[in-house]
Amino acid sequence: MHELPVINSILKVVLKHAHDNHVKQVVAVHLQVGELSDLEDKWMQQYFDHLAKGGIAEGAKLVIERTPVVMQCSACGHRYVADLKKDKKLKCPECASEKNTLVSGREYFIKNLEAI
Amino acid sequence: MTDEIRLIEVKEDILADNTQLAKQLQADLRKEKTFLLNLMASPGAGKTSLVIETIRKLREKLAIGVMEADIDSMVDAEKVAKEGVAAIQIRTGGFCHMDATMVKTGLDAMDTQNLDLVILENVGNLVCPAEFDTGAIKNAMILSVPEGDDKPLKYPLMFTVCHAMVINKIDYLELSDFDLQKCKDHVLKLNPDINIFEVSCRTGEGIDAWVKWLEQEVKAL
Predict the structure, then answer these.
(1) A77–chain B nearest CA distance, Å
(2) Residue A91's CB: how many other CB atoms inside 10 A?
(3) Smallest Cα–Cα separation from A2: which of A31, A65, A44?
(4) I want to staple B41 with a disulfide (CB 3.0 to 4.6 A). Which of A107, B45, B151, B199 is the partner?
């Protein structure tokens, strides 16, 4: 699916910061990826390896941390973690309202780089 | 110089630029009073059929334009243009979704000032289009009966980001084990505010309710 454009965007950000910091070699990229992303870690790494070939990020390891889906209750504003893949009614643990909006869970956040 | 490994803070979300541009696009559309509908679905769910049915019901009342996104073909735009509305085709060139930049390019190529409604027919799939904001005023998706009633469990994000869901091909219900109630229950659990329409583009059943909702939304802009 969209691994290529997503990984390409990640690589662009990585290279920008690497150049700004006069990096010789990027060793690792720490990412936070939302639970709602369908991208598998293994494939993200493979696409990254492919795209990064020949540049200063070649061979860098993606360290992927999954971040949970967080909903905000539309009634009381309370934020809570939800598992959308389970067939369970989403309910605010504070006020029991079922109305909510998605706060996070679909992000591709680049935390930091390990570099030489 | 030593070759010690150092940590460089980045703190950037790759979707942030897209989300920002999408917000700007939406604000511009509101000012212009052009309603952009982002229509998403799997390949073969009936996106183009629903677009055509919608045009036929609304073209006397609203000035409509259609933006067809496809990885690499012109087939859909040609079909839609036959209905006498402004249609453009965006070739995403391998991209499996439309992002805000592509939508902006498309809108710039259309005379949106004189359009009340622009329907964006997104690339056919239930994964990527849900992740990228397009700047649309409302998102809608089609789930067709042959795809199965378990799709909301498999692709929850799609059902979470939509304001309307059209269940198409209900004329096939009798031939399948699709459980309409179960499907609707799943979707409402994910998204209690979603508007659900049961239609058949083939027989025309249910189209009026969908069109009425859309027309009201366009007029409320």
Answers:
(1) 16
(2) 17
(3) A44
(4) B45
A113 touches chain B (CB under 8 A): yes
Of A10, A21, A87, the CB nearest to B153: A87
Distance CA A51, CA B5 (A): 23
Q: Give me the residues paired with residue A103 across strands.
A: none
- Residue B48 and residue B77: Cα distance in Å, rounded? 9
- ipTM for the whole predicted complex goes beyond 0.90: no
Rounded Cα–Cα distance for residues B110 and B118 (Å) = 9
Instruction: Indicate the residue type of A21.
Output: N
Is residue B26 within 8 A of residue A39, CB to CB? The reply is no
Phi/psi of residue A78, each to 5°?
A: -65, 140
Residue with tokens 């005379």: B111
Query: Which of B137, B129, B138, B192 minimizes the C-alpha distance to B157?
Result: B129
Which residues fall within 8 angstroms of residue A56, CB to CB, at 6 or more apart?
Answer: A15, A18, A23, A24, A25, A26
pLDDT tens digits, one per residue of A17-56: 999 999 999 999 999 999 888 888 999 999 999 999 999 9
Does the pTM surpass 0.95? The reply is no
| Measured distance CA(A61)–CA(B57) in Å, rounded | 54
How many interchain CB pairs under 8 A, A with B? Answer: 92
Q: Cα(A56)–Cα(A115) distance, rounded to whole angstroms?
A: 10
Candidates B144, B146, B98; CA nearest to B121 is B98
Q: What is the distance between the alpha carbons of residues A2 and B132, in angstroms, rounded to a whole number?
A: 11
